[in-house]
């Protein structure tokens, strides 16, 4: 059975909510899921996953969340060849127009160095996911699963 692993970092709860939508979408199509908070994720977390997902917010002026800094630094050293990845970001384009979802872009670049295959464009969500975003997230999950088959 296909295993998807999701790491998420949240400050306001928006990204945790997004990670729950992702988890439900994977489960709805029969994929096993393990979802963990960034505090509990080590660089080797994705080692036995078929699909690697990271959901993050961007802190302040384009900074990574503190609890994801180590993972971001160590991830490019992991060999994730043969795995599929996708990244989701949440942000506030009004408050931080120059840094909207910057952390998600940074993780996309880090995953690209692991040998994993990007199977869907990075999803950028304005603050909390709404119904339209939920449909985008379901399509994102579907693309990841199809690429892993």
UniProtKB/TrEMBL annotation:
<keyword id="KW-0249">Electron transport</keyword>
<dbReference type="GO" id="GO:0010181">
    <property type="term" value="F:FMN binding"/>
</dbReference>
<keyword id="KW-0285">Flavoprotein</keyword>
<comment type="similarity">
    <text>Belongs to the flavodoxin family.</text>
</comment>
<comment type="function">
    <text>Low-potential electron donor to a number of redox enzymes.</text>
</comment>
<dbReference type="GO" id="GO:0016651">
    <property type="term" value="F:oxidoreductase activity, acting on NAD(P)H"/>
</dbReference>
<dbReference type="InterPro" id="IPR029039">
    <property type="entry name" value="Flavoprotein-like_sf"/>
</dbReference>
<keyword id="KW-0288">FMN</keyword>
<keyword id="KW-0813">Transport</keyword>
<dbReference type="InterPro" id="IPR008254">
    <property type="entry name" value="Flavodoxin/NO_synth"/>
</dbReference>
<feature type="domain" description="Flavodoxin-like">
    <location>
        <begin position="4"/>
        <end position="145"/>
    </location>
</feature>
<dbReference type="InterPro" id="IPR050619">
    <property type="entry name" value="Flavodoxin"/>
</dbReference>
<dbReference type="InterPro" id="IPR001094">
    <property type="entry name" value="Flavdoxin-like"/>
</dbReference>
<dbReference type="Pfam" id="PF00258">
    <property type="entry name" value="Flavodoxin_1"/>
</dbReference>
<protein>
    <submittedName>
        <fullName>Flavodoxin</fullName>
    </submittedName>
</protein>
